[in-house]
């Protein structure tokens, strides 16, 4: 039997690899999916974040929350590097609220609202402080507006479906 610390590390590594694989696959399907790519990849990444709370605990989920923005850029996501920590914080807000509210539907809803609110406010402030091309400004405003709440909520739906199917015990059990 693995010790809890070893389980956390192993499950964190597996879930981080899965999340990165989703991001990489999303970049390959961009031409096929077009604008829908953000919704599919975002939903699956948010699902992985929530699943990681269940199966890797808050520590493992926190690592994944902060690493995934950087893996997204490595796969070609058009996000300014100075904005990546804000995305990590937004992800962390989702996993922390979900964890604190005992992984319930309320945790998904409140976490999604708070993540969206933080990212929308952050991108507005960030864009006022920088001078980026107008096309990128518009894309960032859109990407960090309502799609954030939609993908977080849909990620919650995927989380609920996956955890009902999987018979793996929670990291807390």
UniProtKB/TrEMBL annotation:
Name of this chain's protein: ECF transporter S component
Taxonomic superkingdom: Bacteria
Residue ranges of the TM segments: 12-30, 36-53, 60-77, 83-101, 108-127, 139-162
Keyword annotations: Membrane, Transmembrane, Transmembrane helix
Key word Disulfide bond present: no
Coiled-coil segments: none
